[in-house]
Specification:
disordered N terminus; 43% helix; alpha+beta; single chain; 216 residues
Length: 216
């Protein structure tokens, strides 16, 4: 015998129940999707607290980074900037000679900018590592950067002068102050040679690898 068709009221209730369940499922799917998008956006856009954490801080601001206290020189520093350790920690006799020369050079419209002066052993070692990476070997880097054990920058006995007009002025007049170029490949590198005031500056080395001091 064929089953008796359900009455109209019962069929209506089943349809309503089906629609209600379907609506709940659709609502749950939409809610879940919205929740995932909110979580993904929080991952892409970090909060201000995570952005300010030490691990995300700029490299130069991390604790232990080498900076001015180790000999880094900001732009525009001159031989008269006592607040900069790279200048203040130079050998006093070298600094006096440089300042006398700079004062006279200023009359010719020339300013002595400092690119490098005193630096810590840690800073010098970093410069050497960078030079090895740049030039491809320890031997090639030695033509430009000395070790911390041999560098006159670490002892405060050397200064690198910026701007070509200043190095040209020192090349011509530096001997009268005892301030002399040392290396042919580094015309910006100057050291104190007091005897130059009477005898003139000594002959320059081709590069630091020819300097006996660098062989220690």
């Amino acid at each position: 015998m064929a089953p008796t068709p359900p009455s109209a009221p019962r069929a209506a209730r089943r349809i309503h129940r089906f629609l209600a369940v379907g609506l709940m499922v659709v609502t749950a799917v939409i809610t879940t999707a919205l929740g995932c998008r909110a979580q993904d956006s929080s991952t892409v856009l970090p909060s201000s607290s995570s952005a300010a954490s030490p691990s995300n801080a700029p490299r130069g601001e991390r604790r232990g980074a080498l900076g001015e206290a180790d000999g880094a020189v900001p732009d525009g520093v001159t031989v008269f900037d006592d607040a900069i350790p790279a200048v203040a920690n130079l050998d006093p006799a070298l600094l006096r000679a440089l300042r006398r020369a700079a004062a006279d050079a200023a009359d010719d419209g020339v300013e002595f900018r400092v690119n490098s002066g005193w630096c810590s052993p840690e800073y010098q070692n970093r410069l050497l590592r960078e030079a090895v990476s740049r030039y491809g070997s320890q031997e090639a880097a030695a033509r430009w950067v000395a070790t911390a054990a041999t560098s006159p920058h670490v002892s405060g006995d050397a200064v690198d002068i910026g701007r070509s007009d200043a190095t040209a002025w020192l090349s011509e007049h530096g001997a009268r102050y005892g301030v002399c170029p040392i290396y042919r490949n580094e015309p910006w590198h100057y050291e104190l040679r007091p005897e130059a005031i009477d005898r003139g500056c000594p002959c320059v080395y081709a590069d630091p690898t020819q300097d006996p001091r660098m062989q220690q």
